[in-house]
Amino acid sequence: MDGVLVKEGRALPGAGDLIRSWRAAGQRFLVLTNNSIYTPRDLSARLHSMGIEVAEDEIWTSALATAHFLKSQMPGGSAYVVGEAGLTTALYEAGFVMTDRDPDYVVVGETRTYSFEAIAKAIRLILGGARFISTNPDPTGPGPEGPLPATGAIAALISKATGGHEPYIVGKPNPMMFRSAMTRIGAHSQTTGMIGDRMDTDVVAGIEAGLHTVLVLTGISDRAEVERYPFRPDEVLDSVSDLI
Predict the structure, then answer these.
(1) Model pTM?
(2) What are 153-181's pLDDT values in tens digits?
(3) 155 shares its domain with 199
(4) Quick check: 44 and 73 in contact, CB under 8 A?
(5) Which pLDDT tens digit goes with each residue over 50-95?
């Protein structure tokens, strides 16, 4: 989503037209995001305000992917969550109990109000035996005044404070996020494409999931960065408008 369809609260050129063309053609698609702050309903409303019509069930977040994964591992489990409504809602709907007393998992996601007390509690629970999960590895996210610390930075802090307990990361670049998305819409890797703006999360996960990969240059990665990686996308385009 970010850097492909929208950027800094505005629709990118061609984004709304591309979605409309897919819908007119009956093309199945999902809009993916590593950001776990918002629920699909929130994101659908935000996209609508920018002229991009995407329904709730056409959005797949790292929070939903995390909830899907944890439900498959431990149905009816419990979790202590450092995150916001997008993550807690997804876990509740997956049948998880939110608790700070001997939870099965500590789950760290995106938030703009990280609490020292919450992070300290997460550290103690992990040291006490809770399994450590992170929705995504992104160390920073975009802010109006520049980069902001994101999930990966907080997870690294917790990992350091626990003496090296590393989280299992569900979101991109874990190809599991793409596989769970394809399962949701009944797609097959041989006939599915991934459009992203980051080499280090989108493209590598798409390659590992066996997808046709398209990098657009409207977000994080530029042509110079492409040359620094040992892998390459199948296509490099200026923007999604080139796909219309």
Answers:
(1) 0.93
(2) 999 999 999 999 999 999 999 999 999 99
(3) no
(4) no
(5) 999 999 999 999 999 999 999 999 999 999 999 999 999 999 999 9
201 and 236 share one domain: yes
Question: Phi and psi for 154 in degrees, rounded to 5?
Answer: -70, -40
Domain residues for the domain of 205 are 6-34+172-243
Please check whether residues 177 and 128 belong to one and the same domain: no
Last residue of a domain, one of 122, 150, 169: 169
What Cα–Cα distance (Å) separates residue 212 from each residue in 82, 215, 237?
34, 10, 13
Which of these three, 109, 144, 169, is where a domain ends?
169
Rounded distance between C-alpha atoms, residue 94 and residue 30, angstroms: 20
Token code pair at residue 219: 């977000």
Residue 136 near residue 151, CB atoms below 8 Å: yes
